[in-house]
Amino acid sequence: MAAKRDDGSTLVAENRKARHEYFITDSWEAGIELLGSEVKSLRRGQSNIAESYASVEDQGVWLINSYIAEYPGASLFPHEPRRKRRLLMHAKEIHKIAIAVERKGMTLVPLELYFNEKGRAKVKVGLAQGKNQSDKRQDAAKRDWNRQKARLMRDRG
């Protein structure tokens, strides 16, 4: 199910692998164009954005390969679970993202899918650059060291 946050928003899906696989340099909040049955499925917490990505096409940003389960009550007009969904962003933001993706070879990855405090579905997308194996090892070593340091401080204190 969806998790309530301190700021009033409700987290529906999170892409935990993104922070492990990429350096996130910048992030934006974008609205997402959904059908009614998709909103009901999201409210039930039935979605996954782990394998999805975003791309700039036709003067817009599209969320590709995200999974939103079919809602059982919408048998008359069901939606396609893995369809392309348009992200709603300002033209300046889209232009900035398009330049970064083209020139710098960066990727646009979804980080979180949530309902904001007004109840609107939002996607947090991040501009990312891929990590190599040694970067991932360094991050793991740093995480282990911080954990060990906290343990030492707790035992001494």
Automatic annotation (TrEMBL):
Any GO BP annotation: trans-translation-dependent protein tagging
Domain of life, per lineage? Bacteria
Tell me the organism.
Answer: Hyphomicrobium denitrificans (strain ATCC 51888 / DSM 1869 / NCIMB 11706 / TK 0415)
Chief place of localization: cytoplasm
Q: Output one GO MF annotation.
A: RNA binding
Regarding protein family, the annotation reads:
Belongs to the SmpB family.
May I have one GO cellular component term? Answer: cytosol
Q: Does the keyword Cell cycle apply?
A: no
Q: Which Pfam families match?
A: SmpB
Q: What does this protein do?
A: Required for rescue of stalled ribosomes mediated by trans-translation. Binds to transfer-messenger RNA (tmRNA), required for stable association of tmRNA with ribosomes. tmRNA and SmpB together mimic tRNA shape, replacing the anticodon stem-loop with SmpB. tmRNA is encoded by the ssrA gene; the 2 termini fold to resemble tRNA(Ala) and it encodes a 'tag peptide', a short internal open reading frame. During trans-translation Ala-aminoacylated tmRNA acts like a tRNA, entering the A-site of stalled ribosomes, displacing the stalled mRNA.
Report what the protein is called.
SsrA-binding protein
User: Which keywords label this protein?
Assistant: Cytoplasm, RNA-binding
**Originating gene:** smpB
* Stretches for region Disordered: 126-157
Q: Where in the cell is it found?
A: Cytoplasm
Q: Does the keyword Ribonucleoprotein apply?
A: no
List all Basic and acidic residues biased stretches.
133-157
